[in-house]
Amino acid sequence: MRWFYLAIVVLFVAATVIFAAQNFQEVSVSFLRISVQTPLAFLVAVIYLFGAVTGGSLLAVLRRSIEGARGRQTGHS
């Protein structure tokens, strides 16, 4: 099953790289009155990495929370 998940991740990364390589036009991004013009490929890469980091962090927090709750149920801390 590990190879299946690895294959899914590799396919998703490949699709992201292909998308980024084909979309180099400039886009304007605005957030809180700050406006930046950047290539769409760069924006996609930054958002992908940000999502990977925050997703991994969220999973780690949830895992610790679940393990802590299980430890309290069995009387361990």
What does the model show?
This protein has 77 residues and is α+β, with helices and mostly antiparallel strands. Helix content is 73%, strand content 16%. The chain contains two helices and two strands, in the order αββα. A two-stranded antiparallel sheet has the order 1-2. It has helices at 2-22, 40-74, and strands at 26-31, 34-39. The two termini are 32 Å apart. The chain has one domain (2-74). Helix 1 packs antiparallel against helix 2 (40-74).
Quick recap of the structure?
The protein is 73% helix and 16% strand. Strands 1-2 form a two-stranded antiparallel sheet. It is flat.
The ordered H/E elements are: HEEH
Alpha carbon gyration radius: 19 Å
Percentage of residues in DSSP E strands: 15-25%
Which shape, going by the Cα principal axes?
flat
Q: Helical segment tally? A: 2
Question: Secondary-structure blueprint of this entry?
Answer:
Layout: H1 2-22, E1 26-31, E2 34-39, H2 40-74
Helix pairs in contact: 1-2
Give structural attributes:
two-stranded antiparallel ribbon; 77 residues; alpha+beta; 2 helices
